[in-house]
Amino acid sequence: MFGLSHAQTTQYYYKKGFEKAVNKDHAGAIVEYTKAIATQNDGTISKDLLYSERAQQKYLLKDFKGAIIDYTKSIELDPTTVYYEDRAYCREELSDFKGAIDDYTKAIELEKKIINNTGYDRSFVKYYYKRGIIKIKIGERESGCTDLRKAVEFRMYPSDYEYYYQLIRKYCQ
């Protein structure tokens, strides 16, 4: 048979990468996820997930530029709120605040499209919160305070209410 052996399948390399990640061998996990990406041909694991897993390991090694490249590839393959959020974290680490704001904005837009009638989920609130804090940090106080107020408006749990109000009192008075 001319197919790939078990040792050469995407699933095999993904599992090895996962095991190395769990054991905090982030560099080793990157190697295995890279192999999984290169052999991804059996449809068992989506390529966007493989890029995201590798990006997480790069993030943990503080290779934020490398992580951004992989998260961008994940977004190209499947633009989800989580990938935008994770890329925003990397951009924050590199002080690319405009890029982080753009990613949180895109996450908010995507989240609005998938919210059902039961209300907003917690991540939606978190995107407003994170974007607001960054805006305040870079001197866009009014817009940042608007985002913090949105976080209060859309809070999911009563305990969030006081936390966000404390931020508003601190930054927006």
Description:
With 173 residues, the protein is mostly helical. It has a domain at 8-63. The chain has 9 helices and no strands. The protein has helices spanning 10-22, 26-39, 47-60, 64-77, 81-93, 97-114, 122-137, 141-153, 158-171. α5 runs antiparallel to α6, α6 runs antiparallel to α7 and α7 (122-137) runs antiparallel to α8 (141-153). The longest helix has 18 residues, at 97-114. The model has no long low-confidence stretch (mean pLDDT 88).
How many DSSP-defined strands? 0
Radius of gyration: 19 Å
Low-confidence stretches: none
Percent of sequence in beta strands: under 5%
- The chain-level structural class is mainly alpha
Span of the ends, CA to CA: 71 Å
Averaging pLDDT over every residue, what do you get?
88
Q: Estimate percent helicity.
A: over 70%
Instruction: Name the overall outline.
Output: elongated
The biggest sheet, with number of strands, parallel, antiparallel or mixed sense and barrel status, is: none
Counted by DSSP, the helix tally is 9
Note the run of SSEs as H and E: HHHHHHHHH
Blueprint (SSEs and pairs):
Elements (H helix, E strand, L loop, with lengths): L9 H13 L3 H14 L7 H14 L3 H14 L3 H13 L3 H18 L7 H16 L3 H13 L4 H14 L2
Helix pairs in contact: 1-2, 2-3, 3-4, 4-5, 5-6, 6-7, 7-8, 8-9
In short:
The protein has 173 residues and is mainly alpha-helical. It is built from nine helices and no strands.
Characteristics of this structure?
mainly alpha, single chain, 173 residues
